[in-house]
Structures are given as C-alpha cells and as structure tokens.
Amino acid sequence: MTSQTHLIRSRRFLPLFITQLLNAFNDNLFKNAMVLFAIYSIYETEEQGAAFSALASAVFILPFFLLSALAGQLADGRDKARIIRIVKACEIAIMAVGGGGLLLAWMGVGVDLLAMPLLMLALFAMGVHSTFFGPIKYAILPQHLHPQEVLAGTGLVEAGTYIAILTGTILAGWLEVEWAALAVFVTAIVGYLVSRHVPDAPPLAVPEPLDYNVWRSSIALVRNTVHDRRVFLAIMAISFFWTIGSVLFIQFGPLAKNVLTASKEVASLFLVIFSVGVAIGSVSVNALLKGTVSARYSPGSVIVMGLFVVGFFMVCRHWTPHPDGELMNAARFMAEPLAAPLLLMLLGIAISGGMFVVPLYAFLTTFVDKSQTARTVAANNIVNSGAMVGGSLLAFGLSAAGVAIITQLLLSAAMCLVSAWLGHLLVKAERAAAA
C-alpha cells in the first residue's frame, strides 16, 4: 500500500492516472445516460430495453475489434504521451455531438431520425477513442514505473477505472439528461488539459510502417503475441471475464425495471455496486500477492464469482414485483427485505471478479518486451472485444427470442467455469515457466 501511495503522488504516474480516470468516467456517464434514458423514457417492454442495451454495447465495443491492431502499432511506434493528447482532443468534438444528441432526445426533437443516430455515432466514436487510448494506459506503465511498481500501478489503474465508472454511473442515474449532456462535454475539455501533463514516452524500438489492413494486421498481431503460453492464456481468461461482465451490464437496466420494478436510480445503483466491488478486488489482490505478478488466486476467484452469480439469480427469482407496477425509487427499493441480499450478491460478484482479472493484466505488460507492450494490450483488446461483441449479440438474440432476462443470468454463471479452467491452465504454465 505504501508503494501505491507513493505512485499516486508521483508526476510520472498521477497525470496518466487522472487522464484515464476521466476517460472512463466520461465513457460511462455518456453511455449510461443514453441507455437509461432510452430504457426508461423511450422503450416500453423488457425485450426492447434489453435489445437496445445489447446493441449499444456492441456499437461501443466494435471499434476495439476492428482497430486495436492499428492502435497497438501506433502506440509502440510513436510517442505514447503525444497520442494521448491527440485522442483527448478528439474527445471534445465527439462529446459535442453526443451531448447534442442527448439534448435532442430530451427535447423530443427527431428522436428516431436524428437524436438516436447522433447518439449511436458518438458512442461508436467514443469506442474508437477508447480503442486508441486503451493500449497506452497499460503499456506506458512499464516505461514510467520500476519493475516492482508495475503490479501496484496496474491495480491502481484498474481500481481508478472502476471508481470512475462508479462516479459516471451514479451521475447517469441521478442527473437529468440535459445536465449529463453538459457534463460529458466539460469532462472532455478537462481530460485534454490534464493529458498535457503526461510525461513523454518515446518509442523503445525503431518505428515500423503501419499496416492499415485491419484484418491482416489483427490476425498477425494476435498470432505474434500469443507465442508465450502465459500471455495467451491470460488473454483468453480476460476475454471470458469481460464477456461475463458485458452480459451482466446489459442485463442491469432491463432487470431493474422489468423484474424488480425499480427506477433508473436503482439500475445505476447496481452498476455502482459492481464498480465498487471490482475496485476493492483490484486493490485486495495486490495486497495478497505483495507485488508479485501471479495468477494463483485467479481460478478460485472466478469460481466464487460464479457462485455469487447463481446467488444473485436465486434472489431475483424470489423477488416480488411491486403490485401496482409502479417503479420504486432507491429508498423504497432498499426497504425491501431481499434488497440487502441482492446487493451483497452483486458486491461478491464484483470483488471476486476484480481479484480474478487484475493479475492477468499484469501478465500482459511484464512477460513481453517493453517495446511490444502496447501491441500486446492491443491483441488482448481484439480478442476481448470479439468475445464481448459475441456476448452482446448472444444477449440480443436471447432477448429477441423471448428468453427472460433473469434466466440469462445463468449464462454468466456458466461462463465463469470456462474462465476458471483457463485460469487453472495459466497457473500451471506459470509454475512450469518458474521451474
């Protein structure tokens, strides 16, 4: 914990930490304000709300699948700090469009023909923005931090990301949509100003020509990255984790409205609990590992996560909807006898999930050459995003087929078993390499 406190005060870490924190905050404020407004003010049925939530997730994730290879090449071959500043400048324009879309939707002006297309365009553009920023926020850490600080730095970045998700999610649920439109634009400006203080991070190898063929470069990048079995297994395990996470996030809004008969503030509360839990798990696993990069706690953590998902499902099954169909606010929801067990199950899912995934990210930046870290993270993003898009489309298809949103929770629990198996293989590979 001392090293983490030391890093927070360090100029080689603090500007990057705040920049990525504001990035995650803005992503989630905009996306959740958009999705919650659509679910609670535009779409009436559970199927419509779930389908829209899944579509929005897929639109945001798609750029990671298409452009991560180019983003990784660019980050390893150019000054990472300069790329951060360019990306954050673009965010200002993107949020001007997105904020405009939120205002039009709030005023009821051209909701289907103008507001929603603008919102989807801005959401896709934010996905592009995060695709180019994502590899850098992890790849820059080994360049600015000492080897014994990398795990602590990764844990802080992960915890900070979820604190930002927490804050953005709270505001998305409680702010009126017109104020959310202003907030995303102001945050983009602040993020750019902070990014100007990130220390330079020049390339560590001679820059190579960029390959703009997204399919060829993506396949080549993944193939060249997974030669280390530990890195390959870490990427696969992270991918399944984020597939589980994306399915759960898609379900929260429709579940709160249609199963629990709760308001959008309660849907926001679910996301908040999830974010707090992952942040707690992220910091806790670093304390357990004492700075050592190891996956030994990952298999057990994700099995516990699956058990908590089953517990969450069971509580939802026994939930009694409000008799008159009126949506409960947060205070009335918390007065329900099953509210505390439900939130405890959700917190358990998130804490165990954070303990599972953080050491795996550290694998990606410590077991490859420093000149290849951005491309390694980019390869991870390609596989992750493909899995998450698949999860979003599966949730979309199940909702379209009329599968109840509560039943879809069991899909997440089943996927935890796959993640545990991958984590077990990673631990075996880790021990074999040590031997």
What does this structure look like?
It is a multi-pass membrane protein. GO terms for molecular function: acyltransferase activity; transmembrane transporter activity. Keywords: Acyltransferase, Cell membrane, Membrane, Transferase, Transmembrane, Transmembrane helix, Transport. The protein has 16 helices and no strands. With 435 residues, the protein is an all-alpha fold. Helix 12 (298-317) packs antiparallel against helix 16. The longest helix has 32 residues, at 46-77. The model has no long low-confidence stretch (mean pLDDT 82).
Describe the structure using short key phrases:
single chain; 435 residues; mainly alpha; Growth Hormone, Chain: A; 16 helices
Short description:
With 435 residues, the protein is an all-alpha fold.
Order of helices and strands: HHHHHHHHHHHHHHHH
Secondary structure: number of strands:
0
Query: Per CATH, which architecture?
Result: Up-down Bundle
Main beta sheet: strand number and arrangement?
Answer: none
Structural topology:
Layout: H1 2-8, H2 14-42, H3 46-77, H4 80-107, H5 111-139, H6 141-144, H7 150-174, H8 177-195, H9 214-225, H10 229-259, H11 264-289, H12 298-317, H13 330-334, H14 339-366, H15 373-400, H16 409-434
Helix pairs in contact: 2-3, 2-4, 2-5, 2-7, 2-8, 3-5, 3-9, 3-10, 3-15, 4-5, 4-8, 5-15, 7-11, 7-14, 9-15, 10-11, 10-14, 10-15, 10-16, 11-14, 12-14, 12-16, 14-15
Subcellular location: Cell membrane
InterPro entries: MFS (IPR011701), MFS_trans_sf (IPR036259)
Transmembrane segments: 49-71, 92-109, 115-138, 150-171, 177-194, 231-254, 266-289, 301-320, 340-364, 376-398, 404-427
